[in-house]
Design brief:
By secondary structure, this protein is mainly β. It contains two helices and 19 strands.
Length: 260
């Protein structure tokens, strides 16, 4: 694992032999590209690596750099990554025809990730993102880790979905449960425009709760939404009390709803 290496790919194009190899290695439901050009270089020692990639294909283009060092298992101790994706064919990759082509930038930095003094930051900013024709390109995802604390914030000011979602919880440890507290401030949510209801229905108001997931997929969640408002052009209903408790298991679920 301590051997050093250096790899430089001036240009790799997708031919018949490489396409057959990709089809044999990737899952059957993952569509292989019909056109691909790759330029890349990588160097490092053991699992520590610095890479630079420029990939163009009919499924989309990816360009970026990444450095990862001091690995323990699947997590590096230091990480620096910047990736730009353009014209990703989300429909072909996911099978979801509601998703349009997407472009985004991902920046991630982390230091001392195996130590209690860890610091990390992630920023995901789409430049092109649509769902059922709704422009969601102003969606922004941020995540920050400081010590044993992990915080995330997802914001959107789209016409059909304007909200702010915040989560807080401890830094996840392998083999331990994942516990998150969350709160959502919904300014506007058009459920019909998002394909969630066949009729006009809008929502706004606050939601808050907690979710705990065990490594074996079991979990529990609690959601409260006092003051949540559901409305359309002719009717409005505001909850004075709304509480939802649920249990998740590998092959079953349980749900308890208490509301006015």
């Amino acid at each position: 694992p301590k051997s050093s290496y250096a790899l430089n790919v001036d240009e790799l194009t997708l031919g018949r032999g490489l396409r057959q190899l990709m089809q044999a290695l990737v899952p059957a439901d993952v569509p292989p590209p019909s056109r691909l050009v790759l330029r890349a270089n990588a160097h490092g020692t053991g699992y520590d690596a610095s890479t630079q990639v420029d990939l163009k294909s009919d499924l989309g283009d990816l360009k970026g750099t990444a450095k990862a060092h001091n690995w323990k298992g699947f997590v590096p101790g230091q990480l620096n990554m910047e990736l730009t994706a353009n014209d990703i064919d989300a429909t072909r990759l996911t099978g979801d025809t509601a998703l349009g082509p997407m472009s985004f930038t991902l920046v991630a930095n982390g230091d001392r990730l195996h130590e209690a003094s860890r610091e990390a930051h992630l920023l995901l900013t789409p430049t092109v993102l649509t769902y059922l024709g709704n422009d969601l390109s102003h969606l922004v995802l941020q995540a920050d880790a400081a010590g044993d604390s992990l915080r995330t914030e997802l914001t959107s000011d789209a016409y059909a979905a304007a909200f702010r979602l915040r989560t807080t919880g401890p830094w996840p440890v392998a083999g331990d449960s994942l516990v998150l507290a969350f709160d959502i401030a919904v300014e506007r949510l058009d459920l019909q425009e998002l394909g969630l209801t066949p009729y006009e229905l809008n929502m706004d108001g606050p939601l808050a709760g907690r979710i705990a997931l065990l490594p074996d997929v079991r979990g529990r969640y609690v959601l409260e939404a006092p003051g949540l408002r559901m409305f359309n052009a002719t009717r409005t209903f505001a909850f004075e009390h709304l509480a939802l408790n649920g249990l998740l298991d590998a092959d079953s679920t349980a749900l308890e709803l208490d509301c006015d």
